Fold these 4 entries.
Entry 1:
Amino acid sequence: MATLKEFEEALREHGMHMALALLERLRERDRQTRTIRPARRITGQKMTPDLARAILELHASTGMTQQEIAFKVGVNQGRVNEVIKRGKWLDDDPHAPEAVARDKAKARMRADPKPQPRPRAKPLARKEAPRAAKKPAAPQGQFAFGDL
């Protein structure tokens, strides 16, 4: 498939000046109707229990898609999905997994020292069989054109 520039060059090579004039007129029309539109949203809303309940209400009472709900309330579609499918963000519990993840992300953004890590369970020791020494690979020959 050719690009518009390649198409224009082909028209020029074949001397199709009427087609080039038509193409230029279409470009000029597009320039006149083109506008600079503001972005849909500059920053996302902070997820709160009230906002989560509003998302659930919109989902239950309208036929809107998750993307439409996200655009309306000012969050991304992934957050809407978390609220609808997993019931996240419905309470103010600071120990909820999503709140802990949010706080860790904020700490990373501020370049604060890492929060206290949770104690990890010790890995289970596996009994391994003694490893056999690796045998050196046998040399492989190469054929030349005259060998066959």
Entry 2:
Amino acid sequence: MNSTLTRTRLVHWRTAIFTLFLLCGLVFASWASRLPAVKQNLGIDDFEVGILLFAMGTGSLAGVMLANVIVARWGARRGLSVTLVGVAAGLLIAALGVDALGSYPIAAAGLALMGLCFGSTDVMINVEAAAVEQAFARTLMPLFHAFFSLGTVAGAGIGVAMATLQVGVSWHLGVTAAVGLVVSVVSLRFVPAQAATDDDVAETPSRRERLAAALAVWRDPRTYAIGAIILGMAFAEGSANDWLTIAVVDGHRETEATGAIALTVFSVSMTVFRMIGGPIVDRIGRVWTLRILSIAAGAGLIVFILAPNLPVAFVGIALWGAGASLGFPLGMSAAADNPSKAATSVSAAATIGYVAFLCGPPVLGWISHQIGILNTLWIIVALIAMSGIASTAAKPIAGSKVGAGSKVGAGHH
């Protein structure tokens, strides 16, 4: 489908999807960085903050499950033109609810809309990224996810600056929404009009046929095996984001500042390996990369749990971050190996990942209350081992141009 695109148009397409990944990371972190101000402005407690986050999370999960239907009906480009507007609108509504209107229900409604559209956007940009990979015949998915990570760093940094300067939530997030909308419109101009990612629907299927296609992917054993890869690594990544600082403070008896440094080390390690991961996959293949990194993640987490001192703990954290870096993006890439089923497969894989991100933190929190945070992290070690064992499922299917190692990609280096 992409053979008619010139090299220049392919590069513009790739750059547009890089930009959208960066934008999504920035928008997500911009909101998260202002949570203390949200809590203060609305006069709510931690439980009510949790309800806001739950509204966004459940909206995201619904959006992930709707994405494949959107792509099958309208194509990824047209779908993104709607969902990216929805993300900006939801962010603006939430910001106005927090600051200008001081309304908890409006803030919750805005976050639910933002989450719904964000979930669908996430699937569609991953499907587009997989199509770009196939067009370039090189592993690029880790680099796309590195741009998301860079966006979160930028969004968090801007959020710190806005909070320090005491800029209101409405102004900060309102401007972020406006800039995001402009960037989205410009970027989508460079995405091929014939959604390279849609489910090849020359003959517009009926609603029943689209539903059947969406459900069929759940009868494919490969979906669950790829889901096991993503589940293990989503827990490895999510547990660090949510519990690493607490594990450093409560488990290793360090200061809160040291906990923040530990999370930074993890994030930097993960981002660096996402930036350099593509050439590694093209050299040794998707399966061996996942096996090696699952060993690194598991070993790093064990070193962190058992560390007798802080330097050893930091070595473990760096290994943990590096090992967890590619599981989610390579799982997405594997799910999209068959372009004709890319939307439904990526949607299913992303659903499993989102469930892990949503359900993981509270489950781990409840368990850690019973046995302590460091003991709880052994559960993550077991899930990482499961991910490594399941990595064979990521073997590229016949016809895929990426992920098989140097015998496929050698001509492109």
Entry 3:
Amino acid sequence: MTLPKRADAFGPHAFVAFCGLAASATVHADFIKDSRASLELRNFYFNRDFRQAGAAQNKAEEWAQGFLLRYESGFTAGPVGVGVDALGLLGAKLDSSPDRTGTGLLQADREKPNRARDEYSELGLTAKLRASGSLLKIGTLQPKLPIALSNDSRLLPQTFRGAWLSSGEVRDLTLDLGRIDRVNLRNSSDNEEMQVFNGGARNIVLGRSRSSDALDFAGATYKWTPALTSAYHYGALDGIYRQHYFTLGHLLDLGDAGSIKSDLRWARSDNAGGSNVDNRALGVMSTYKLGPHALGLGYQRMSGDTGFAYVNGADGYLVNLVQVNDFGNEDERSWQARYDFDFAALGIPGLTFMTRYLSGNGVDVNGRLDEGKEWERDTDIAYVVQGGPLKNLGLKWRNATVRSNFGPDIDENRLIVTYTLPLW
């Protein structure tokens, strides 16, 4: 597969041309019969208090309502099946003010400084081709790959624009190949050029070009046994960085004594001519599960001349990526302890609890502080209604506390109510 080089290769003109091709194909009943559509309602309240001395803003606090309309068609008949997906997103402001913006829930009003727009929306279209065990998608993408991980932690999800070929022709082997040319941030309605995330103490220095119009990626995932999987992924943000990512996952079944799930990740990132990116990231997470209880322990280490690099607005694929931080700063060493409990064991199915604590140290902060420290404590309580007229209604409270000697001190609460209505 030869991927297009032009920045607008996956834009509206290309999609219209593809839809014309799809329309000329004989529409099979499976195209309609296998289609599905749903409407997700997402009500989101976000409150982040800044506790450090001299904070420019006391708090970021907003409330918003999101609507996520998803449609997935089936495929036409024949050796090459054709289909179309659509994602309609609408975010509406319920409460905000100039002194409380910046939660990431709402789009900023470009004509009114420090104000959020009353609403923002977008429509994402994806053409898809299926042949044997391979699937090609062109248009709006939401990849969940180590080198391109779509962020869905606010009102509306982040999306990418590009082409993605996933192949499962060989048993137990999945191959991925693609190119992304634009990103749509979670609080935006515009497709934009991509940048590298450089928050915290990344110490990443960029050359003349601060953005890129291409993220090329490839990967292979192999399931050696039902309990053992390994993967390699490569990503290159054109002109900024290159990244190699290796992962290993294993599940050890101990029978009546429970199970141990292990997750090992190692990444090597370096510059692609327009930055100083130089990072090696090692992470390991092991979780022991017995009945309704799960106890996890994690360790993560950064080395090299910069922190971990990934596309701005996306999630970094790190074991210590949590509610607020990812502990991926230059030279940072961090550990995590996590506990989960499922209340179904006590006769309350749908109710779950999670708490974790992370601590990081050794951070190099722009050469002026070589012992930066931070910690974060998170708690999630979630309930999903199991039956009756409100079945699948989800309620979640997320609480976080962050303290640092080089970044902001934060107390944060998120209240999220979700309900998904299947349309057919």
Entry 4:
Amino acid sequence: MMKIGELAQKTDLTTSKIRFYERIGLLTTVDRRSNGYRAYPPQAVLLLGLITTAQRAGFTLDEIRTLLPSDLQHWDHDALMNALTRKIADIEALQARLTQSKAHLLRLVEDIQARPEDMDCAANAHRVLTNVLTGPSDNLDITPDDVRLLDRTDRRQSVSRGRSKKAVPP
């Protein structure tokens, strides 16, 4: 048995994250000592690793809760395989939509950069917006579920990169 600090060190999770997983019922292998300290079995390291890996793969905490067996010895093979297959399909659909979005943005950049030399920025913006609004509309629906599938670190990096770039006047 180990204390929460040792478990946090072994899993690279904060103690507050471990307590959160316990509070929402994902981490149930906790003994409370008479002095109020939590004691965790070695199995808790594996369980927290599974939770972290599943979150990185895009599973929600509710999805993880339904998939994790209570003792890690009795997995529902069919449910696990179905959930993994569905998640792969979700990721493939997201990849297709992101590819389409990227292509749309690349076309937009090309259109903006194709500004005639005698045209000012405002007129160019009007020209580009007119082309966008009157051109064929692509289905660029990115849903909240799609965003959830992206790793949180990737989302932070893409937002940070977007903020750090300075706008260059055309």
